[in-house]
Amino acid sequence: MAERNAQQQLAELLEVQLRGGSDAGGVGKYLLHRAKPHIPPWLGWAGTGLAGVLGHLRWADSAPAAVGLTLGSVVLTGATWLIGKNASQQRRLHSAITVAAGSAWLTAACLAGPTASPVGDLYLMGGPALALSWNVRLVLRHNPDASGEASDKGLLEKVGLAKAQIGNAKVEPNRVSAPVALEAGVQTNDDMTKALGNIASALDLPTSAVRYTPDPGSARRGELVIVPEDMLAEVAEWEGPSNLGGSIADPLNVGRYDDGAPLLIWLPGDPEAGRNSTHLLIAGGTGSGKGDTALNLLTEILSRRDVIVWFSDPKAFQDFAPLRPGLDWGVEGGTPTEVLVAGVEAAIPARTRWLGAHGYRQWVPAAAQTQNSPEHTCRPDGRPCGCPGMPFLVAWFEEAANTLRALGDDAFTGIAQEARSAGISLVVSLQRPSYDQMSTSTRASLPSVVALGCDARDEGFSLPDEVLAAGAHPGAWGNRRPGYCYVVSPGIPEDRYPSPGRTRRFTHRAVPVMELLAAWAQRNGASADPITAGAAASVAGRAYTGRAASGTEQPTGLRAVEQEGDDMEEGGLLVDPEDQDIDPEAGLPEPEAGDDAPIFGQEAGRKPSPEEARRLFANALAEFESKGLMVVGPKDFTDWCDAHNLSRSWVSLRLKEAAQEGRLEPTNTTGRWRIVPALTAA
Q: Where in the chain is CATH 3.30.980.40?
């Protein structure tokens, strides 16, 4: 019976809130709604009077009818008493008295007449009294001030919070929220958090449908949120970006919450709204919908006019191939990703310096426009400088576990700590953001997270403890509900953090739309500004080319070889560049040390003179640079050593010498060096 009462109380609460809140379009509607629960006793009173009139017309002089009506009155009263055995003693007695009084009056009215004295007087005085008694009972049940107890005492008592009080509820579509005050000195917000599962069980709702947000200013107050209907069960397919041509400062719509509200994420900060720029972690186990979530976010980003994207995907753009033409810089895993990381690191101080010189404390949409305002000029005289604008930059590392294994668990630490002030957002996507893969410093610098289904033991790696305590449990989904997620990010109200959402699904029907979006980004999207492009080129050389214009292709692969061959046919040299200074009539050089057979215990290979060594190694570095291979180590020189009859140990010494001369810089990986582009080194 207690469980039935709890469910009945919830039904009444949802009915009052969901219907009453939506009908509050006028005073008349509101009053009618509030009067509805009190009408049934009065309808029973009126119906009993009508039955007395009709019964008197038919049975006024019938002795058998008198016997039948009397027996019926006794049986009905007894049945009411028996049926109410599971109700409270008070309700059982009240119901039996009401039925006995009504049936007795009906018997008298049928025999003596409804207007006969004192039958008519009893009807006019006793009937309203009984109806009002039921009205008072209803008022006391829903009015904590009148009853001295919360209206939901049965439910809260069932979960061990009998003296907790629930205040006036706030109504939204498919969402009821109400303030809760726990018993002072006895209960805390932790008690309410621990009871959420039991409340969901008592209401016959999923665990994720009941959430509690503690009040940061109180240890016993908070807000209870109930979502009676899961609106995420139906899959929604992606149909296109939400704000084509808008600014990256506008919210990115990546899905919807369980009450139907849009799921929004902001990347840049807003000084007027007091919102900081953010980095984003996308975490979820295999099959949790992480790929579709990433596509939702990336398509939203590429649809904006003032942003560029640098993207690393060790899976060779398996999911993102239709969008690749819209990226400003897209690389696969390994060495190209290492170069991209170095490019982001170089862009941070360059962009920060530019923003500071133009009077921006953080990136705002005005920074992406040509600087024609005296308020944002780098000229000492205060006149508009006319500098090209600087678009927002998103540095995205897909399947980042691969990159972290290659570069170390703190590969993104510097970027995560410094990039936000430079108008750069870091997006890191991986399955398990545990501390053995990602350093604690990096994880602490990623303030935003999209947490999809995962192993229950990994929840703490994705979401803050207070969000988990408020009712968020991505471990309950695993990979059974692809796209279900919790989002924690600046700009989202904190009471939304434990609310589940769901991203849209990408099917084969989305591929043509993504291709059109990439073409739109080529024609209408932002291009890298000179500062950002120069910083990238300073470390990547020809590996950074920028986004190709629509309808053109970068001269890579076979096309680059063909173009080089065409240039040679039009007047280029017919010999290798390294042999162009050789005199074909000159004799062979004298033998040098190391040209003969190697001594036992020594590595094979000739030892050139210092001058020749510098020339050979400089040519090798220039060759690697021309191919866009900007991070090298001894193993990359294997074929080159074979071609020039040199040893890898000789190459290792030359690498160290080149680093001392500024032509190479060490990387995070031992034995790997980054080539400094020739112009930068000069």
A: 147-226
Decide: 390 and 532 in contact? Cβ < 8 Å: yes
* Strand partners of residue 632: 673
The pLDDT assigned to 551 comes to 52
For the segment 394-442, what is each residue's pLDDT rounded down to a tens digit? Answer: 999 999 988 888 888 788 888 999 999 999 999 999 988 888 888 888 8
What is the fold of 252-536? Answer: Rossmann fold (3.40.50)
502-to-146, 455, 486, 492 alpha-carbon distances in Å: 43, 18, 8, 15
* Burial of 659 from C-beta contacts in 10 A (0-12 / 13-18 / 19+): middle
Other CB atoms within 10 Å distance of the CB of residue 397? 27
Residue 460 near residue 449 (C-beta atoms within 8 A): no
- pLDDT value at 586 more than 70: no
pLDDT tens for each residue of 348-378: 999 999 999 999 999 999 999 999 999 999 9
**What pLDDT was estimated at residue 549?**
57
The end-to-end CA distance of the chain, in Å, is 86
Of 52, 8, 12, which is closest to residue 36 (Cα–Cα)? Answer: 12
Q: What is the pTM of this model?
A: 0.66
Render pLDDT for 610-663 as a digit per residue (tens, 0 to 9): 677 778 888 888 888 877 777 888 888 887 777 777 777 878 888 888 888 788
SS3 of residue 369 by DSSP: coil
DSSP per residue, 544-592: ---PPPTT-----HHHHHHHHHHHHHTT--SS-GGGTT--TTSPPPPP-
Cis amide prior to 118 (ω within 30 degrees): yes
CA dist 265 → 273, 308, 381, 485, 487 (Å): 14, 17, 40, 13, 8
Distance CA 144, CA 407 (A): 62
| Higher-pLDDT residue of 116, 356 | 356
Confidence at 27, pLDDT banded by 50, 70, 90: low
Cβ pair 381, 238 in contact under 8 A: no
Q: Strand pairing partners for 451? A: 283, 486
- Binding site residue list: 284-291
Count CA atoms closer than 13 A to 278's CA, side-chain side.
24
Q: What are phi and psi of 317, to 5 degrees?
A: 60, 40
Residue 15 per-residue DSSP state: I
> Given 3.30.1490, 1.25.10, 1.20.1530, 1.10.10, which CATH number is that of 605-682?
1.10.10
Domain 147-226, classified CATH 3.30.980.40, yes or no? yes
Q: What's residue 576's pLDDT?
A: 46
Structure tokens belonging to residue 529: 């500004």
Helix (DSSP H) and strand (DSSP E) numbers for the chain: 25, 18
What one-character DSSP code corresponds to residue 281?
Answer: E
What residues form the annotated binding site for ATP? 284-291
